[in-house]
What does this fold into?
Amino acid sequence: DAMVIQNPRYQVTQFGKPVTLSCSQTLNHNVMYWYQQKSSQAPKLLFHYYDKDFNNEADTPDNFQSRRPNTSFCFLDIRSPGLGDAAMYLCATSRERNYQPQHFGDGTRLSIL
Amino acid sequence: QKEVEQNSGPLSVPEGAIASLNCTYSDRGSQSFFWYRQYSGKSPELIMFIYSNGDKEDGRFTAQLNKASQYVSLLIRDSQPSDSATYLCAVNEVTGGGNKLTFGTGTQLKVEL
It folds into this structure.
């Protein structure tokens, strides 16, 4: 089945140690998104790509960066994770930059020691 | 600041009853509206989307939209214990790089035997 795949499902890292989360999609969608979701909160958009065009949200900390080397893959890099960055990170895709639905992967739960 | 408001619940309904979930939004220019189901510890799963005023039905689910009142709802008929989850309302904002979803914090639904 076509889908959005996130790896790993669970990631544990140390305070300040860089970490990379991965997302791949077989939907051939043009737009890929990264969200952060903390317990009992709404998903919060960090940034998104339309094809190779990167769009950062104004309140996304500089500590968070992203790469999209090709249509299928997108990475979330956290340069120096702090305790406040522990959360579920969700990758989503949509076909085009219009009103179409977004489809989510299973998420990566990040813990900081 | 665009806002999406939902009652956090929990909303408890007996098995077989109709569950009614409500959502209001602040941006009159919003054009598309989505309902996602999220089980504890899992990622959001798209349930319904609606673009036009009125009702849209899909199986046991009906989405209702009233743009004049800035109100969208989700009805779940014949509620089952497996419907117990948090339901997220999301409203679309089209930006230069893609469609951005603003999520509510979700309503927790409990379907009791």
In short: Residues 7 and 107 of chain B are 6 Å apart (CA to CA).
